[in-house]
Amino acid sequence: MYRFLLSRQWVILTLVALLLIPTMIRLGIWQMHRYEERTARNNLVTQALNAEPVPVEEMTSPGHTVTTHDRYRKVTAKGRFDTASEEVVRRRTNSDDEVGYHVLTPFVLDDGKVLLVNRGWIPSNGPSQTAFPKIPAPPAGEITVTGRLMPDETTAASGIKNLKGLPDRQVMLINSEQEARRLGKQVLGGYIAQISPEPKGDTPELIGGNPGSEDAALNYAYAIQWWLFSVGVPIGWVILVRRELRDRREKAERENAEETEPAAV
């Protein structure tokens, strides 16, 4: 009765089932790795958010690479904004997904080094994309700014191409090495997303608030789902085999009954 398993249809079905089981198990393992990675990143973000603010030069220096471990750390800096060297970062969205600019203003520290400060988002409501937008001025004179430390932006990490030939004082990515060459000064690695002082008139729109956490629980649920699927495949195969056996037995019984039925006189 099990000879049907050697038919072409059932051989293909069995091979597909045998391939699906390890594939689904591996997909579950991959989702679990994603869960662990996201959980680790969420823990780092939580630690950064709960840490006390420190002077920025304790966390970075010229040429320094800001690591994932230091990302979102709250830092402070004392100095003055250099609005004459201000730039805007193109194609950035706000909390409502409106496209505009991020305002990137060099902040000159007391020792002459420069900290890049992302002062927030402004709309791109100028006459054209090539014209430099009107930017609200920051506080004048010496002040203390507070922000969250961020690593230099790269195309690999952000997916944003670092286009050349842009209009004057417009960039695609925030990169401290690039800014050091432009300014001809020592620029601290990375940049900060400003938290305070808050701008007058709510513009630029600050972006340095508490970052959201990644949905690690979703990856955990996907892992369980894939593993349940891998268990369901052999169960489904057995159910199909039993159904095929039942149908074949019923057909055989009907044929036997027809053969043994007496002929009509």
Helix content bin: 25-40%
Rg over CA atoms: 32 Å
Strand content: 15-25%
For the secondary structure, the number of strands is 8
Indicate the mean pLDDT: 90
| Helix count, DSSP H or I runs of 4 or more residues | 4
Structure class: alpha/beta
Distance between the termini: 36 Å
Biggest sheet overview? 5 strands, mixed, barrel
Low-confidence stretches at least 5 residues in length (pLDDT < 50)?
none
Strand order of the largest sheet: 2-4-5-8-6
The ordered string of helix (H) and strand (E) elements is HEEEEEEHEHEH
Fold and architecture overview:
This protein has 265 residues and is of the alpha/beta class. Helices cover 38% and strands 20% of the residues. It is built from four helices and eight strands, in the order αββββββαβαβα. The chain has helices at 8-50, 155-158, 176-183, 216-260, and strands spanning 54-55, 74-81, 87-93, 99-109, 114-123, 143-150, 170-171, 191-196. The protein has a five-stranded mixed β-barrel. β4 (99-109) and β5 form a beta hairpin. It starts with 7 loop residues before the first helix and ends in a 5-residue tail after the last helix. The relative contact order is 0.18.
Which terms would index this structure?
elongated; five-stranded mixed barrel; 265 residues; alpha/beta; 8 strands
